[in-house]
Amino acid sequence: MNIQKSTIVFLSDLSRNNNKDWFGLNRSRYEVAKSNFELFVQEIIDGIATEDKILKGLDAKTCMFRINRDIRFSHDKSIYKTHFGAFIVKGGRNNRDKHAGYYLHVEPGNSMIAGGAYMPPSPFLSEIRDKINEEGDKLQRIISDKEFIQNFGRLEGESLSGSPRGYQKNHPYIDLLKMKSFFVMKSISDKEILCKESSDLIIRKFLLTKPLNDFLNEVSSKWS
Predict the structure, then answer these.
(1) What is the pTM (predicted TM-score) of this model?
(2) How many domains does the chain have?
(3) Per-residue pLDDT tens for 8-31?
(4) CA atoms of 27 and 22, how far apart (whole Å)
């Protein structure tokens, strides 16, 4: 399955007409595009769930983000997002601060996928650091896998300037312990997102991040 060209065209048009009047006149186009994205997300969930059993039965609707932006504290007062996004994780998007998962972002010329945990809250982050202290070699093997690096590169996200409390600067995994996020990203071209095999391609890529998610989620169950 794939994202339809009409979905990409709608999002492109929305980026040039980000206002209530235009959106109201084009709501039927939005509903078609949203339905296409929902079906696409569901196929990806079902594909990942063949190996990541914890996602079995997960409903795409619980993973998708609203198109409306929260503009309360933003200088950018654009009403609508110009992309569709979904975070595929146990329990749906509302658990994105509790578990590592798979993020899908569809935007004309800027689509991408990501895996892992972005800025996990303090209890989750503390447990991750404890696990790295005990099993840093395991995480190092996961992120050093040749195919993983070829597709996603290195872990991304901010790091502390110094050592986290309780850890010495000469710790063998100090660079990992300093990290405040543990995620990887990969850009997906419009050609890839529109091709008939798009969902299969994305499922394969997502499953490369499963070992990272598994490592992180082994600790999330302790406090979530």
Answers:
(1) 0.94
(2) 1
(3) 999 999 999 999 999 999 999 999
(4) 8
Of 32, 22, 36, give the one whose Cα is nearest residue 79: 22
Instruction: Locate 137 and state its tokens.
Output: 């070699």
**Amino acid identity at 197:** E
What stretches in the chain show pLDDT beneath 70? 220-224
The CA distance from 134 to 120, in Å, is: 19
Range of the domain at 19: 5-220
